[in-house]
Amino acid sequence: MVASAHAAVREEPVTYTDGETTMKGFVVYDDATQAKRPGIVMVHEWWGITKHIHNEARKFAEQGYTAFIADMYGDGKTADNPKDAGALSGSVMKDPKVMEQRFNAARQQLAKQASVNPQLIGAVGYCFGGAVVLNMARAGADLAAVAGVHATLGLNTPAPAPGTVKAKILILNGADDPFVKREQYDALKKDFDAAKADYRIIEYPGAVHAFTNPEATELGKKFNLPLRYDAKADQEAKAEAAKLFAANLQK
C-alpha cells in the first residue's frame, strides 16, 4: 500500500531588498491548504535569524498562519557573541528610519505571498525584535496585532498621537528581566495610555531574558548574561500570543 503524501510545513528562503541592501528572509506555511490565511511578520533576537526563530515560525505555521521571518540585518547576518550582536542590533535601532524600512520591506514580502490574506497581518518579535514590533505599532504600522516576547523596550519612535496605533498590543516579559527597567515600562504605558492604544503587559514571575529560547540557558552561562529558558513561562506566553492572534487575525 502506497502512503499518500502528507501535507507539511514548508519553509522557503526569500531574497528581497531594502534599497541597496539584500535581505534574506524565509516564508513558512503549511501546504495542507490552498486557502489564503493571515500572515505574521517575525522579527528575530539580537543574534539574527537562529534555530529558535525558525522553530517559532513553524509553530505559527501549524496554527494556520503564514509566517515571514524578517532579516533585519541584511544578507542574513548573524552574531555568535554579545559584542557583535549589540553592534548589529544597534545599527538598526539607532536610526528609526532604517528599522522601519527593513520591517516594511519584510511586511511587503509577506503580503505578496500567495498563501496570505494581505488584509490580515500581525507581527511578533523576540528581544531586540520585540522592540522593533512595538516601535512599529507606535509608528502606526498597518498591523492587526503585535506581540513583543521578552521584548527590550528601547523606544526609538515618537510618542504616538491619539488614535494612531492600529495594532492590538501584547507584551510578554519576564518579571525578573534586568534588561528592562521600570522607567521603560512607565514611559511605554504613559505613551500608550495617551494614545488610547489597546495594550496588555504580562510579566512572568521568576523569568528573565530570552525565556522562550531553549538555547538561552547555555548562552547565558557562556557569556555571563541573565538569559535562561523557562518552560512554564514559555508555554504560558505562547498560549497568550496564540489567543491574541486568533482573536485579531482569524476572521
TrEMBL record:
Q: From what superkingdom does this record's organism come?
A: Bacteria
**Keywords of the record:** Hydrolase
What is the name listed in the Swiss-Prot or TrEMBL entry for this protein?
Answer: Dienelactone hydrolase family protein
A Pfam short name:
DLH
Molecular function terms, GO-annotated? hydrolase activity
In which organism is this protein found?
A: Bradyrhizobium hipponense
The record's section on Gene3D superfamilies has: alpha/beta hydrolase
Annotated signal peptide:
none
What SUPFAM superfamilies does the entry give? Answer: alpha/beta-Hydrolases (SSF53474)
Domain Dienelactone hydrolase residue range list: 33-247
